[in-house]
UniProtKB/TrEMBL annotation:
<comment type="function">
    <text>One of the proteins that surrounds the polypeptide exit tunnel on the outside of the subunit.</text>
</comment>
<dbReference type="Pfam" id="PF00467">
    <property type="entry name" value="KOW"/>
</dbReference>
<dbReference type="InterPro" id="IPR005824">
    <property type="entry name" value="KOW"/>
</dbReference>
<protein>
    <recommendedName>
        <fullName>Large ribosomal subunit protein uL24</fullName>
    </recommendedName>
</protein>
<dbReference type="GO" id="GO:1990904">
    <property type="term" value="C:ribonucleoprotein complex"/>
</dbReference>
<dbReference type="GO" id="GO:0006412">
    <property type="term" value="P:translation"/>
</dbReference>
<keyword id="KW-0687">Ribonucleoprotein</keyword>
<dbReference type="InterPro" id="IPR005825">
    <property type="entry name" value="Ribosomal_uL24_CS"/>
</dbReference>
<keyword id="KW-0699">rRNA-binding</keyword>
<dbReference type="InterPro" id="IPR008991">
    <property type="entry name" value="Translation_prot_SH3-like_sf"/>
</dbReference>
<keyword id="KW-0689">Ribosomal protein</keyword>
<dbReference type="Pfam" id="PF17136">
    <property type="entry name" value="ribosomal_L24"/>
</dbReference>
<dbReference type="InterPro" id="IPR057264">
    <property type="entry name" value="Ribosomal_uL24_C"/>
</dbReference>
<comment type="function">
    <text>One of two assembly initiator proteins, it binds directly to the 5'-end of the 23S rRNA, where it nucleates assembly of the 50S subunit.</text>
</comment>
<feature type="domain" description="KOW">
    <location>
        <begin position="2"/>
        <end position="29"/>
    </location>
</feature>
<comment type="similarity">
    <text>Belongs to the universal ribosomal protein uL24 family.</text>
</comment>
<comment type="subunit">
    <text>Part of the 50S ribosomal subunit.</text>
</comment>
Length: 101
C-alpha cells in the first residue's frame, strides 16, 4: 500500500471528494485508511451502569478505501512510485514532481 500514516492526502472519489486531511490510521490488510475530518459517522455509545457513563452519540471518522484517496502535493493529487537507492533502500517518489516523499 502506497499511502502511509501521517501522509497528507486528498479524497478523489465519494461523498467527501476534494477534502484533504492527514492519515490517522492505515489498515493494509483491508486496503483502507482513516483520514481526519473525512467520512464522518455518528456512533451510538451504550450507557454503562457499572462505570456510571451515560449513553451518547459520538461523531468519528470511518475508514475509506485507499483507491479513493491520493497523496497531496501542493494541494493537488499525485501518484506514488518507488526508486531504489545505491545502498538498496526503497524510497517513495512523487510521480508529479519526481521528488522524494
Amino acid at each position: 500500500m502506497k499511502i502511509k500514516k501521517d501522509d497528507e492526502v486528498i479524497v478523489i472519489a465519494g461523498k467527501d471528494k476534494g477534502a484533504t486531511g492527514k492519515v490517522i490510521k492505515s489498515l493494509p490488510k483491508e486496503n483502507r485508511v482513516v483520514v481526519e475530518g473525512v467520512n464522518l459517522i455518528k456512533k451510538h455509545k451504550k450507557a454503562n451502569q457499572a462505570g456510571g457513563q451515560q449513553g451518547e452519540v459520538v461523531t468519528q471518522e470511518a475508514s475509506i478505501h485507499v483507491s479513493n484517496v491520493a497523496l497531496a502535493e501542493d494541494g493537488k493529487a499525485t501518484r506514488v512510485g518507488y526508486r531504489f537507492e545505491e545502498d538498496g533502500t526503497k524510497v517513495r517518489v512523487s510521480r508529479r514532481s519526481g521528488k522524494d516523499i
